[in-house]
Amino acid sequence: MDAPIRLATVADARALAELRYEFRASIAQPTEEREAFVARTERWMTDRLRVPGPWYCWVAEREDVIVGNLWMQLIEKVPNPIPEQECHAYITNVYVRPAARGGIGERLLEAAIATAREARVDAVILWPTEQSRSLYARHGFAVRGDLLEAVLDSERIVAPQREGGESVT
Ligand SMILES: CC(C)(COP(=O)(O)OP(=O)(O)OC[C@H]1O[C@@H](n2cnc3c(N)ncnc32)[C@H](O)[C@@H]1OP(=O)(O)O)[C@@H](O)C(=O)NCCC(=O)NCCS
């Protein structure tokens, strides 16, 4: 069954907040009560979907129900006098409901990459889950030897990709 991809609007904020809870609660036991989390996330998403950029969200819909989403933030660089593009992009919260999986993730990713190209993005970054690495690899994502990351949150349950570990998204 087809699931068209479109940009999210403010009207989607509640459904997207619920989807965010579903995704994260599938990874670890939440410490925040569902309704409180959904309410604050709906406000957060409403504020970001209200304006064009720096946040973008694509959704996949089936029979008027959102079954997947992907968020991307454009990150400005300091202006550059040399020939180098002036923003990066960060992809996060990539999630498709289990029953809808099979092709939607790739189409969400392609929509984001197309927009990043139009926005003249330099590099797109993300932290993959172990299982999703092949999806990103097919679209040009690779481990970079010159990228440094300092993890400051020692309490984080779902840690960034480490040897044999899970990752944060
Ligand atoms: C990742 C995800 C969005 C892909 O959605 P999808 O519609 O199945 O994607 P596609 O069919 O277009 O692409 C298939 C690829 O998805 C990835 N994938 C498949 N099942 C997955 C799973 N349970 N968890 C994570 N990634 C998965 C694989 O890379 C797969 O490629 P492969 O066939 O070479 O193994 C979806 O599986 C998901 O929501 N997983 C849980 C959340 C997650 O891991 N998100 C990624 C965080 S960066």
List keywords for this structure.
169 residues, alpha+beta, globular, binds coenzyme A
What's the tally of helices? 4
User: Largest beta sheet, briefly?
Assistant: 5 strands, mixed
Q: Under the CATH scheme, which class?
A: Alpha Beta
Uncertain regions spanning at least 5 consecutive residues: 161-166
CATH topology: Aminopeptidase
Mean of residue pLDDT? 93
Strand order across the largest sheet: 1-2-3-4-5
| CATH architecture label name | 3-Layer(aba) Sandwich
Q: Judging from the principal axes of the Cα atoms, what is the shape?
A: globular
Name the bound molecules. coenzyme A
H/E element string? EHHEEEHEH
Percentage of residues in helical conformation:
25-40%
The count of β-strands is 5
The CATH fourth-level homologous superfamily: Gcn5-related N-acetyltransferase (GNAT)
Distance between the termini: 27 Å
Rg, nearest Å: 16 Å
- Hey, roughly how much beta strand do the residues contain? 15-25%
Q: Provide the number of structural domains.
A: 1
Quickly give the structural class. Answer: alpha+beta
